[in-house]
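Pinned message: reference record for tRNA-specific 2-thiouridylase MnmA
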Amino acid sequence: MRVLAALSGGVDSAVAAARAVDAGHDVVGVHMALSRSRAEFRTGSRGCCSIEDAGDARRAADVLGIPYYVWDLSERFEETVVADFLSEYQAGRTPNPCVRCNEHIKFEALMDKALALGFDAVCTGHYAQVRIAADGTRSLHRSADLAKDQSYVLAVMGRERLARSMFPLGDVRTKDEVRGEAATRGLSVSAKPDSYDICFVADGDTRGFLRDRLGERPGPVVDVEGRVVGEHQGAYGFTVGQRKGLGLARPADDGRPRYVVDVSAATNTVVVGPAELLTVRAVHGQDAVWLADDGLDGRPFDCHAQLRAHGAPVPAIVTRTGGPGVRVEVPAGVRGVAAGQSVVLYDEDRVLGQATITGTDR
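Predicted structure (tokens):
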């Protein structure tokens, strides 16, 4: 097959591309330039898509003996991922930009261009597995290395794009195995630190980034009785479940810690309360994307739900609602669920589908 390998400049994508070459595919490497000021993007091990990363990707392609190109997707990235990030926080929700990047950039813009150029598949260094049944049906599964599993942020791709995706690192047991393989292959990125946090927030100060882009909007922090207990400089800087950085001038009457239990963009108000108010029993989601047919007949079905990128899956009962919606009941309850995040549904390690959280029931 003709395979387009997305080379981020990190060790994972380099080894994934190497494995695609070993499998006998005709591989071409592409680095996605996502920042309008790439020279400023990497701070220590944070960030990605900098000039440094483009150079590392080129050197990896040279070692592998494959053609290498840079595709400028910075405008698309700004108009989709960054714009969505800002608008979601401004609306009082907490987005996951990695999900949006996979949806709009890696498995839409990149894949659409690859297919238009005659490639059969796109290969990335994500930690997840694609399994093919006897009838040719493909399914998405968790990585063998559960600590690195990225199926949560990949669930948004849908069936058509899954059919054109390759994740050669899905069977890897540890990141050390990947680094060792990279060193053996002579790839200079073998010891390169992982990028982490939000790639376009180079210094890791999300609240500062939002303040610079959205401006200060002072407003009240209130308790559940409506009493003002503090002041904020922008409700967009808070998320449900947050405890640190609240700046409360008035302690709780019982002396217990308080958490953000609601963020109202309409009134520019942050509501704080006791920990028990964070527990929800049901989650509502919209814009559902399905990779399996479970519940297609409209009847509720049992599965496990993951509500944060690094959260633990919990037993759930799922019902498809009108349109692309779902209701996910969590009988045991789950804490700190924020609107804007993804709820991803699993049958053991198989991804069934995902939806964007729009609300919860306590």
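Pinned by admin. Summary line: The chain has a mean pLDDT of 91.
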